[in-house]
Amino acid sequence: MSEVSRSVVGTPIRFLMFAAMCLLPVAAQAQVAPPAVLVDDIELLQRIQTSARELDYAGVFAYQQGSSMQSSRITHVFDGKNERERLELLDGQPLEFLRQDDEIQCLLPEKRAVLIETRTARDRFPGLMIGSARQLTAHYQVSVDPEPQRVADRDCQVITLRPRDNDRYGYRLCTDVDSGLLLRAQTLSPEDEVVEQVAFLALQIGAEVDRKQLKPRWKTDGWRVVRTHLNPVKLSELGWKVGEPAGFLKMLEVQRSMGGKPDVKQVMLSDGLAAVSVFIEPYSEGHPRQAGPGARGAIHVVGRRLGDYWITVLGEAPLGTIQQIADSVSYTPAPARKP
Question: How much is the pLDDT for 41?
């Protein structure tokens, strides 16, 4: 995700977008009446979220976007009430995430800084969903392959989610037969080609997990601490309007303030699985002169200038969906209040 922000977007907001996509908070869950679906399919999908939260596991997974690949090491433990997790990027710029329940610390050793943010989503691998499993069936056809496959030397059940329209991608999931933990997630094009995937290469579950691996690599004494503040806002009351493609509903509207940077407004849309964020910030000379789209794997980014503002739309959705959202953003200054 950080590579997308650096190489595709290239704006002063790139670090904020990286943090937002990695630490994505959810304010509410959309209520959608789904079509009928087998209860077993729903239970398999919901089990992914439960396993990601309540199991002890540790392993290395690889995240592939197009021709690029990045590997990470994760350690996760659950004591029956609270979660603790350490996620370390093994390639490129050193980066580490320490999580305790909803609070995440992002360690940036090259900057000797710690970014702290709170989130409530469970959408990061091996989590999957933003919302409930039943919500997904309104936008995806769910099917289960009776023949198991094998990932990271473990038998896994294949679950395929095919989109009911062209506004979203399809997904092929492989969950551990014994534990329900997600072992591999593939994002599929309309032609069923894999455009992005993440999968465990090695994995331990249960008593084999070494809790010492939760300890960070670096001592952060003396590092600069930056806490991101997320203030809920009603963008419509400020004159902003953001369109919602079919099935995508507003899950979050906040104004970010971080490290002395200008306030940035963010709207997050989701269909329960795919998420798209819209960032609104004051325009500056540091923004590109030419607006337009960019892509890395399944992630598309569109930037455009709107008066004195710069709009960035980023998310895992087809370019047409991202462009539609970007084009829908409009601003009508609210009338000044009479004294």
Answer: 79
